[in-house]
Write a structure and sequence with these properties.
The chain contains 9 helices and 4 strands; from the N terminus they run E-H-E-H-E-E-H-H-H-H-H-H-H. With 198 residues, it is of the alpha+beta class. It has a 4-stranded mixed β-sheet. The protein is globular. The structure holds glutathione. The site of glutathione has 13 residues, from helix 1, helix 3 and helix 4. It holds the Pfam family GST_C_2. It is an enzyme of class 2 (transferase).
Length: 198
Amino acid sequence: MRLYYSPASPFAAKVRMAASHCGFELDEVTVDTSAEPTDLLAANPLGKIPSLVTDDGCPVFDSSVICDLFDRMSGNQLVPQTLDAWRAVKTFEATVDGVIDALLLTVYEVRYRPEEKRYDGWVDKQTRKGERGLMVLDQRLDELTPELTTAHFALAGLLGWMNIRFPGKAAGEFPRLAAWLDGFIASNPTLAAYVPRP
Ligand SMILES: N[C@@H](CCC(=O)N[C@@H](CS)C(=O)NCC(=O)O)C(=O)O
């Protein structure tokens, strides 16, 4: 399976950790989404990463769908199957993904929009979404099970990425989450290689 990704991408980090946890080898291809490379667009018309192409040539995206595919292929090694546990993991993962989506928009506002065209009210709204989501993740941290799930991988991707794009924010405002990442890295040296790092 071929994965288009970037080492800094939090969504790609989740998928790469999930693949490693399930024992799946990926043919990993780094891409710059800004350049809109042809092979990425062939795999995903949205030009986003992570994007997967299966061995028989089927495109699979986005990150949660790729994780669902890995979960099914691995006999559910990524998400528990009882109803309550499944709901807890999937909503935790969705909260992480939504936090990244919101904070990523604030990064893109600076990266892609000329200064005179930026609108602080909109950026502030995205920041509030991200911070509310982070508060919920902090409150739900104790729900994470000893068995690794996509919720763990999503959270590790988010917090590693925040350390690159928002240095000091996690440690300063969400110290329990920052400490959780330190523990995750220390306990999972193989997976730690996929955590986005400054
Ligand atoms: N919902 C998607 C979001 C993926 C996403 O936004 N990836 C970013 C990089 S972290 C990207 O590809 N950005 C380029 C773009 O939006 O054109 C997922 O879960 O995979």
